[in-house]
Amino acid sequence: MALAVRPVASADAPELAQLINQIIAAGGTTAIEEPFTAEALDSAYLTGADVQCCFVAFVEADNTLQGFQALVRNPSLPEGVGDIATFARIDGKQKGVGTALFEETRRAAEKLGNSQLNATIRADNTGAIKFYSKMGFADHSVTANVLLKDGTPIDRVHKRFVLAADSTSNSRKTLKLSDTPATDTPNLKKKGRGWEISEKRLDALHEQAREMRRFPSEAHKALAARFAKADLGRYTFKRFAVVGSAIVDFNCHNLGMAIAIDEEGQNDAIAKRRDKSLEAVNIRVMRIKASDILENIDAVLERITAGMRMRIADKRDARREHFERSTPRQDRHNDNTQSSGRTNEQNGGDE
């Protein structure tokens, strides 16, 4: 069956109320426990004052609605962070409903000026957590022990999706170094330290990084604790560092080396694109499984130490090659002779 997506209409409210009420009655997934009337659903998710956009997915052959996805303003979230909610028929016969809806929601959210999307999910709703992770949402925070009507405590998982900086473009921004401007207008440096990234995008990234520092994963906390105790000299690692248009778990600026923790359920395709963009500007990314950190952190630290030594050697070789390319052969000979003379004098001239 061919699936299509369109903006919602108030006329869809009765059918969508029936759809969501079936989900509520089944229990175990949505945090919503009270059924909706058509009017209440229209106000809350479809066309109400706090609704930024809402799309429905339907089967073209018979026009039956298969699900809807709404983006609403939530006063508990920062400005520019839209709250997303997705509902699909519980029979699960029509595949790809959420994915089709998200493409439209993402584009609309960018045009509306949002910098991020927030998804709040019951911790026991593993299907929804997997879906949002597949769409590229990253873990943000957890609200522990939210009580259901019957008194059962269930955690709420909050995940975030960073939108493209340019709201007029449908393509995601990638990391790149600033080129020489074609006009006299300088590239924005600000927190980006020379990266050609808009102020809005940078602010969103740094806000997300701050939130990630507040709610790190267990693997991140364990590795951060060991880094804090280690004597790394000038090669220190910053937690949840913004590098260009990416956020990495740890970054050593002096080494040009980043550490990314692979958490369970993450979108590996997005992680690979991030790594490729960083490697393109000579930032080496070391990816480490969260399970490896939690099970054998000493072995992980040995890997990191070996990686640091390799980066130090790489930088030393790069400096040597740069010197050899930029210095004429005769000047290099003179420099070596003078250096040897100084060494002989220091050694008493016995050589």
Describe what you observe in this structure.
It is a single chain. A hairpin with a 2-residue loop joins strand 8 and strand 9 (246-252). This protein has 10 helices and 11 strands. The protein is elongated, with a radius of gyration of 26 Å. Helix content is 40%, strand content 23%. The protein has a 7-stranded mixed β-sheet with strand order 1-2-3-4-5-7-6, sandwiched between helices. Strands 8-9-10-11 form a 4-stranded mixed β-sheet, sandwiched between helices. The termini are far apart. The protein has 351 residues and is of the alpha+beta class. It has helices at residues 13-26, 38-46, 97-111, 126-135, 199-214, 218-229, 268-279, 290-295, 297-326, 329-346, and strands at 3-7, 51-59, 65-72, 81-88, 116-122, 138-147, 153-162, 238-243, 246-252, 257-262, 284-289.
